[in-house]
Write a structure and sequence with these properties.
Number of strands: 12
Largest sheet: 3 strands, mixed
Number of helices: 0
Shape: rod-shaped
Structural class: mainly beta
Helix content: under 10%
Order of helices and strands: EEEEEEEEEEEE
Length: 203
């Protein structure tokens, strides 16, 4: 090391071969900055010294979205953070306040796969995902959400229609204004109406 102490055991390396680097010792207040000379093609006996720079090590931590692209990371105050972040060894990366957006094929964010609370080296953080779930509401002819009609529906599945809404004044229900057979987002389903027409039979 920088003080002349040997790191690990001496190695016997064939001419032109590569030596195997040991793990560099950690020094408080300093960061390992590489080796003093290359040992990829050893041509003679050599001493290789671990070099350090002042200050704690910092490592890049990158957050990715559900498409595998770098996420635009937002802080709590709404400002955009650099991504990757440079995080000091032993510290936590800043958690994005904005979750990755759902994908076109129905994947929604469900947490992060990697732990980034104690950074010890370069890290890529990828999102877990689950099938998106959406809210579907059905409205009556008065413009109110029908009782017990609000439901959670998984991406691509069908909502269950409630009993047909009752007549309002001279308006009668003739169907729903939105297709809910393959839900791909939050829906508000409202009734189509027409003037009521009644059949009168004389017996």
């Amino acid at each position: 090391d920088a003080e002349g102490n040997q790191i690990g055991e001496s190695q016997e390396v064939h001419f032109g071969a590569t030596a195997v680097a040991p793990e560099a010792p950690k020094i408080a207040g300093k960061c390992f900055d590489g080796w003093s000379t290359s040992f990829n093609k050893v041509m003679a006996s050599m001493d290789v010294v671990a070099t350090y720079k002042n200050g704690a090590c910092k490592y890049p931590v990158a957050f990715y979205d559900l498409e595998g692209n770098l996420l635009e990371v937002k802080a709590e105050d709404g400002t955009t953070l650099s991504n990757p972040q440079e995080v000091e060894e032993g510290k936590s990366a800043i958690v994005p306040t904005n979750n990755p957006k759902p994908t076109a094929d129905g994947k929604c964010f469900d947490g992060w796969k990697q732990d980034f609370s104690n950074i010890t080296g370069e890290l890529n953080v990828y999102p877990e995902f689950k099938t998106c779930e959406y809210t579907v509401k059905f409205y009556d002819l008065r413009g109110f959400v029908m009782e017990d009609s609000e439901q959670k529906v998984l991406y691509g599945k069908a909502a269950v229609a409630p009993t047909e809404p009752l007549q309002k004044d001279d308006l009668c229900f003739i169907g729903w204004d939105t297709d809910f057979s393959e839900v791909k987002g939050n829906l508000e389903v409202k009734p189509n109406t027409k003037k009521c027409v009644f059949t009168v039979n004389y017996l």
